[in-house]
Design goal:
Largest sheet: 8 strands, antiparallel, barrel
Radius of gyration: 18 Å
CATH architecture of the largest domain: 2-Layer Sandwich
CATH topology of the largest domain: Alpha-Beta Plaits
Strand content: 25-35%
Strand order of the largest sheet: 1-3-2-8-5-7-6-4
Helix content: 25-40%
Length: 237
């Protein structure tokens, strides 16, 4: 049975306004949002990890992952988000978005794969994770997905026993379709060790197999990104 669908809100924020925005977003906006939209049962927020000491720190990404109670309630949740009673909250969000937020995106995803390795407290339990994002050529995507979910991911989890969990999602309201794989680690040190193991010599064959899909004259993977994130907020606590 697929896990709960999620909504990912991605953005960057002007560094000099980050603390002020976080106070608004964490302690006013998100609690009021979840109280107004009961179909959303939790919110977890993350910031891009391991970018200190680089220029990327100034444009680091933040993700908020909202969990829906089920796929059946997505439409109702979207209606609740647009209710007139939320007009003041939306206006305050829009002011931030117009002045200090950048590259804001909101996408809903459904789960397509979950490894049997499951943490005791379920998904998104305030753990850091490695996020692999891809878009694929529609004609080649079915073959890529079969290989990725039946061969690559099971071998990855076997070769990297330090992963706490792994799930894959596909966008439900975005074109072109985007696919997200979330590898959770138990800690930031565990995340670093897991990434080291992914690049270990015994995985050269698997990593080479991946590159067969993202290279050549007509690659199956048309866009890809990979970034690590660490938790900074959760609601309910």
């Amino acid at each position: 049975m697929p896990g709960r669908p999620i909504m990912i809100v991605s953005l960057t924020v002007d560094p000099e306004r980050e603390a002020e925005f976080n106070d608004f977003y964490h302690h006013r906006y998100i609690p009021k949002l979840l109280n107004a939209v009961p179909e959303l049962i939790s919110a977890r927020r993350y910031e891009e990890f391991n970018v200190e000491g680089s220029l990327r720190w100034f444009t680091k990404r933040f993700l908020t992952i909202y969990e829906f109670a089920s796929e059946a309630v997505i439409d109702q949740a979207m209606e609740d988000l647009a209710r007139p009673e939320r007009e003041q909250d939306r206006a305050e969000w829009d002011r931030w978005k117009a002045s200090h937020l950048h590259d804001v995106a909101r996408v809903i995803y459904g789960e397509t794969y979950a490894h049997k390795r499951v943490p005791w407290d379920g998904p998104f339990g305030s753990r850091p994770f490695f996020l692999v994002s891809v878009e694929a050529d529609p004609q080649q995507e079915p073959d890529f997905t079969v290989w990725y979910e039946t061969e690559y991911l099971p071998k990855n989890l076997a070769d990297v026993p330090t992963w706490a969990a792994c799930r894959r999602y596909t966008s439900l309201d975005r074109e072109p379709t985007r696919y997200q794989t979330i590898y959770e680690a138990w800690s930031e040190e565990g995340l670093k060790e897991s990434l080291r193991l992914m690049r270990a010599p015994h995985r050269l064959g698997e990593n080479a197999a991946w590159h067969k899909w993202d290279s050549g004259e007509r690659p199956a993977i048309t866009w890809e990104d990979a970034t690590s994130f660490t938790p900074i907020f959760r609601y309910p606590g």
